């Protein structure tokens, strides 16, 4: 499952890189929470939480409904 999540994050990555940011997969918890780390401009961006919930989480949960959420660390 982690490989699938990493692949999904890889599809999101170019959009973040276009704005000077990036995203890194950290872990998939036992309760199906994906933990990610925003990097570059995204790390300090005021809209980072909106990016996590509105884009990353939505896309990952659409592809893998068993995922309960995405959190930034």
Secondary-structure element series: HEEHE
Q: Structural class given helices, strands, pairing?
A: alpha+beta
Classify the fold: give the CATH topology. GMP Synthetase, Chain A, domain 3
- The CATH architecture is 2-Layer Sandwich
Radius of gyration: 11 Å
Question: What can you tell me about this protein's structure?
Answer:
Helix 1 packs across helix 2. The protein contains two helices and three strands. The protein is globular. Strands 1-2-3 form a three-stranded mixed beta sheet. The mean pLDDT is 93. With 73 residues, the chain is α+β, with helices and mostly antiparallel strands. It has a single domain, classed as 2-Layer Sandwich (GMP Synthetase, Chain A, domain 3). 45% of the residues lie in helices and 27% in strands.
